[in-house]
Amino acid sequence: MSSRAIVKSKKVVKSTVKRRKVSRPSTSKSPRVAAPALPAPKPSAVHIERSTKREPLGHLLVEKLLRESGFKGVVSSAAELLEKYSTDESIFHIKPQIVLQPEDKRSVEIAVAVLGKETKRFPSLSLTPRAAGTGLGGGSLTDSIVIDIAAHLNKIIEIKEKDGFAYITCEPGTPWREAEKVLKAKGYYLPSYPASKQICTIGGAVANNAAGPDSLRYGHTADSVESLDVILQDGHTYTIKPLSFKEFKQLIKGQDALAKAADATFKLIEKNETVIKNAKPKTAKNTSGYPLWSVISTSVAEFKKGKGVFDLTRLISGSQGTIGIITSVTLRAVPIAKDTTLIAVPVFDLSSASRVVLEAIKHDPINVEVFDSLTYDSAMKNPQFFRSRLPSLDYYRVLLSMYTTFHVRWNRRLPEFVLLITLDEKAIAKKGAKIEDIVNILQVKGGRGTRVITNPYEREMFWQVRDASYLLSKLLDPKKRPAAFLEDMTVPPEHLAKFFTDIKYLLKKYNVTAAVHGHGGNAHFHFYPLLDFTSRSTPALIIKMAEEFFATAIKYHGNICGEHNDGIIRTPYLSKMYSNQVLELFRTVEHTFDPDDIFNPGKKVNPRFDILSSIRHTN
Length: 619
Description:
Blueprint: H1 56-68, E1 73-76, H2 79-84, E2 98-102, H3 105-118, E3 127-130, E4 145-148, E5 156-162, E6 165-170, H4 176-184, E7 188-189, H5 202-208, H6 215-218, E8 225-231, E9 237-240, H7 245-251, H8 257-271, H9 273-279, H10 300-304, H11 313-316, E10 325-335, E11 340-347, H12 353-360, E12 367-372, H13 373-381, H14 392-409, E13 417-424, H15 425-431, H16 435-445, E14 451-453, H17 456-467, H18 469-473, E15 481-482, H19 496-509, E16 516-519, E17 524-527, E18 530-531, H20 538-555, H21 567-570, H22 580-593, H23 611-614
Parallel strand pairs: 2-4, 3-4
Antiparallel strand pairs: 1-2, 5-6, 6-10, 7-10, 8-9, 8-10, 11-13, 11-14, 12-13, 12-16, 15-18, 16-17
Helix pairs in contact: 1-3, 8-22, 12-16, 14-17, 19-20
């Protein structure tokens, strides 16, 4: 494939810009395609309405200007490459007009600088960063320019050990599995590892603020970020890390893009501190919106007295490349826990699920994972699925454990849920408890049949079933696709049982099948309804289901976005979680960092993709 491939435009479309009166000047872009048929926040007064035309002349010129500016790497509009970047793991299909694969960080800076200039002439131009394309919300899809940072920027730079932790610095395209491998050799790991860790990248995990099983104890990826190198809208790279008040005051004396954005963000938080604090979701896990409540670790007043830090990495982590492009990441890794104990809790009575989970989290578990009866049933009906995942002898031993558990231990009854609770000796000792006492209490709370799993093949069986829930769901109906649009809802654990009861009712109401798994300690559920994307009725069904399912999460004081981020699918629905005032704060902070809307427009704020027409038509 030629790195200079260029598609000739058949027709040059003249750009038109329509403006309406605004209360203050702005260069922020508003939606460039038809508004989604969804409940979206009312447009801000700072918005400028612009043409939805794609401006092929602008894109054609960008290809030329990038080369002339010294960009190194692929600049292509070859049809087969554009198609490759038209999908990710989401339900959408949106074709870009140019694909960039920069060979070095300087080329990323050049791309941002060129776009920053040309977007003023051609408003439809934008730059969307992409890594492995494993996102479930369509965050890496665009109808303009996609910049693949994983193609070449994928190297581990260094690992340092200090004060009981390891600090790994790497480029954003570094595969998570590679970082995990080198850290494991030293006895450490990154605790926010997502289920996609075998195929995702470090930069993608930071941009989405990924989380996983061990996030129950250690939090999201943002909680492990030490520093980030980020290219802002002026085309320059800045190292961003937590700052004391003295360091912050020194920073904002400058006149560069970071100084101005930091100063404006601080003033925004200071002015709206109470509103921002009250807007923080009640759930432990959340990646929706911009977490302004996490930027200052204390109150504004305490920060001014020298306490706490001002940390813009908290804002950039999870921003999906909407306010800058990450070119380097330093993460803090923790020691791998030793002497762990796995407790399996079959929950046959759904009404007791909340009691069991609330009891489990009292003991500071590393994780509390969950999968449902349909997942276990699918595993038993598809034993061949595990053959490629396990060595031959282990394969038979794991299957023996699977069928023995069902026929003997569960007396041929499938529980509503199975909870997998991982405890470590250090935490148990700290709490002054004993394993046998914990097991007995969990049984009393409703976990009849709770057991400590000592057989290594039985342990492997439970984790194989849990980890394979999504892939097993694909086998339930090969003519349909597991649809990622409801898969990230979470509620406070005390509402787990009632919430899931309502979810089961809604699945039955819409006559769809979905295996359920997730992070039980956070009452965070992943489920993917099996839908036929070749059917013309599917897009409308998705819209209808999203409305009702999301409303159910909100009813139980939960949220619609625990760890998979907003992307295309959830951005229009943020008004269900946040007030108009808070949504305006989100728009303001995005505009502060990206006044010309260079970076990944239509995600997090200002939804611009028509969901109905953007949904894929293949399974």
